[in-house]
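dumping this here so i dont lose it
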């Protein structure tokens, strides 16, 4: 099992660096061609524009993941897991609680982290109930994707739309009810298959390391700074996030100085919080993948091929149908990559259609286990949750998908 995971990890990394090399070769070819025709500056500016979009994404996710890694190191998420274990909920209650928490947390935390966190809780309480583990994990995947669609802080595709100033931050909240429908409908269908029993009695002590609660406060403050600076000052979201990273580093320095006054020797070294370790442990695979994908898409868009696709999707066929089809394709292709491709097309559509596209791309990945980061993450970590099991419940997920679209047309009809 371990060798298989290592081989899979190496294979994924090979693909990522293939993307990066391909992006470099494509842009070098474009720049050489334009330089030979005396227009090197045109190609250079196009590259810089795409690079700027990537850097903003990189800095935003870097700070978010650094905070999450720091909270993990301080024991915040483990405390949440222990708290749920100690409450002695039934399996059916835990099914809704883990799903509901996944929905709420994914509004401010990336879906992969939420999926793995809730997956760990599900496995801990469902040791003797493999069916519960599989159903609860599927529910977590759907909930995480739905919750991440409501806020730009939790989903890559919504973050792209926000960064490109297509929609204001508060406009995404119009998707709250459609996303709730997307989560609740399949969960209600699966609920009747969840065991009624309670897990075995267990009790563990909740232990948080020093500074954990203040770090949660700093994370919330960072998100508040990010949103307010974007709304009031029109600064890019990355600016507020980087300010929050500075606050976290200052707090880390404070912890180190105050601990030095109390602890000495080995004990002191084990208690010190090092932010650079949290930066080191972020998911660099994902960030590098997005560099390659975004730069290749940017090159294809610069050459005009995406304009042809946009003319077909948003000109020759119905825009609503096009957005639904793009959303369905996110079950096979990363939704962030698809959203960046659409943004590069510069389609002339109303806010209601942009919200529809955000909705379909955000929740469409729930149709298959490989369609979203939470699904892929749980596939690799939890043996009870399989591609085949997810596929058996796809009709219920698909029903939630189309009902969420119908709900969007109902509650947000003014945007069309």
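and the seq i came up w/
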């Amino acid at each position: 099992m371990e060798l298989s995971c290592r081989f899979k990890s190496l294979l994924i990394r090979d693909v990522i660096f293939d993307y990066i090399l391909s992006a470099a070769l494509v842009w070098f070819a474009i720049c050489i061609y334009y330089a030979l025709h005396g227009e090197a500056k045109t190609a250079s500016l196009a590259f810089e524009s795409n690079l700027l979009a990537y850097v903003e994404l990189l800095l935003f996710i870097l700070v978010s993941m650094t905070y999450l890694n720091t909270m993990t190191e301080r024991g915040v998420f483990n405390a949440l897991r222990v708290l749920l274990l100690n409450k002695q909920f039934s399996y059916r209650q835990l099914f809704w609680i883990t799903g509901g928490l996944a929905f709420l947390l994914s509004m401010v935390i990336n879906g992969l982290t939420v999926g793995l966190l809730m997956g760990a809780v599900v496995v801990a309480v469902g040791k003797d109930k493999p069916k519960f583990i599989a159903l609860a994990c599927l529910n977590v995947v759907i909930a995480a994707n739905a919750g991440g669609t409501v806020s730009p802080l939790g989903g890559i595709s919504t973050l792209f739309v926000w960064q490109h100033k297509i929609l204001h931050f508060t406009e995404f909240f119009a998707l709250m009810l459609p996303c709730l429908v997307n989560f609740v409908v399949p969960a209600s269908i699966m609920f009747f298959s969840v065991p009624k029993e309670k897990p075995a009695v267990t009790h563990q002590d909740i232990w948080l390391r020093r500074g954990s609660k203040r770090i949660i406060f700093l994370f919330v403050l960072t998100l508040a700074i990010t949103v307010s600076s974007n709304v009031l000052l029109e600064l890019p979201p990355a600016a507020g996030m980087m300010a929050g990273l500075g606050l976290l580093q200052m707090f880390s320095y404070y912890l180190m100085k105050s601990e030095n006054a109390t602890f000495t020797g080995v004990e002191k070294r084990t208690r010190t919080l090092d932010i650079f370790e949290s930066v080191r442990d972020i998911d660099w695979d994902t960030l590098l993948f997005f560099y390659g994908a975004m730069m290749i898409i940017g090159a294809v868009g610069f050459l005009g091929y995406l304009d042809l696709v946009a003319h077909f999707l948003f000109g020759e066929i119905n825009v609503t149908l096009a957005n639904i089809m793009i959303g369905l394709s996110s079950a096979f292709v990363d939704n962030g990559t698809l959203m960046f491709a659409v943004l590069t097309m510069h389609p002339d559509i109303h806010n209601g259609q942009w919200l529809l596209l955000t909705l379909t791309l955000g929740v469409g990945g729930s149709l298959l286990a490989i369609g979203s980061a939470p699904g892929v993450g749980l596939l690799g970590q939890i043996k009870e949750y399989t591609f085949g099991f997810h596929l058996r419940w796809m009709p219920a997920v698909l029903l939630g998908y189309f009902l969420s679209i119908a709900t969007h047309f109902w509650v947000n009809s003014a945007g069309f």
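Residues 2-415 form one domain.
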